[in-house]
Amino acid sequence: GEDVEQSLFLSVREGDSSVINCTYTDSSSTYLYWYKQEPGAGLQLLTYIFSNMDMKQDQRLTVLLNKKDKHLSLRIADTQTGDSAIYFCAEAYSGGGADGLTFGKGTHLIIQP
Amino acid sequence: GAVVSQHPSWVICKSGTSVKIECRSLDFQATTMFWYRQFPKQSLMLMATSNEGSKATYEQGVEKDKFLINHASLTLSTLTVTSAHPEDSSFYICSATGGTSGYNEQFFGPGTRLTVL
Question: Residue A57 carries which DSSP code?
Fold first, then answer.
């Protein structure tokens, strides 16, 4: 089965908050990531969280980690049309320097005007 | 952030031919490069990890004789799909990182779309 799971689509109104959820199965995951993929562009790292953290905030982005439930979420405040993209959750045992990442299938964020 | 390029961005080839995809780190030295494959509506799947000057480490189920990886310099890794078949059609993405200890961000290339007829 999947190691990292995400819902495929999320639709929100412009200006509302978007919450994208992710679950993972590997309890040894040390780093958890959120990437953004826009058409024709490479994956862009949005943020990452170390497994001993519960929350991380960076401007409009808030990441929550529930390590007990192996649940990760990304909240985008005041969602804008430019936030329309595919968002990937990913995990790694180490900090990316030596290990490849395990990705979810990605969540398509659709912004309604 | 650091820039990783891939060439070509897309390629169409006939079944049975070989295709080479290049991945370059433009402004940093990449000690480790990773190759991923992404099928439509699927996640990126790690194919192999490549360290400069060493043989690549392949993930389970990835044929090393079919997907030849060379990482001869600190700024270039190549993936050659040998004797390509239609089932090899996919989106191939590379990433590069500049270190192997502590936290080192992986920088992703824009991907290469391979279509095998």
Answer: E
* Residues facing A21 on adjacent strands: A73
Q: Which residue has the tokens 């699927």?
A: B42
Minimal Cα–Cα distance from A76 to chain B, Å? 21
Rg (CA), chain B: 13
Q: Are residues A103 and B43, on separate chains, in Cβ contact within 8 Å?
A: yes
8 Å CB contact between B39 and B90:
yes
Distance CA A76, CA A64 (A): 12
Q: For residue B32, which residues of chain A lie inside 8 Å, CB to CB? A: 97-98
Judging contacts by C-beta atoms under 8 Å, the chain A residues touching residue B92 are none
Per-residue pLDDT of chain A (113 residues), as tens digits, is 458 999 999 999 999 999 999 999 887 778 899 999 988 778 899 999 988 899 999 999 999 999 999 999 999 999 999 999 999 999 987 655 567 889 999 999 999 98
pLDDT in tens, B17-70: 999 999 999 988 888 999 999 988 788 999 999 988 888 999 999 999 999 999
Query: Is residue B10 classed as helix, strand or coil in its secondary structure?
Result: strand
A77–chain B nearest CA distance, Å:
24
Q: Which residues of B71-96 are buried (b: 16+ CB within 10 A; e: fewer)?
A: beebbbbbbebeebeeebbbbbbbbb
Q: Which residues pair with B21 in a beta bridge?
A: B79
CA nearest to B82, candidates B22, B17, B34, B37: B17
Q: Quick check: A97 and B101 CB within 8 A?
A: yes
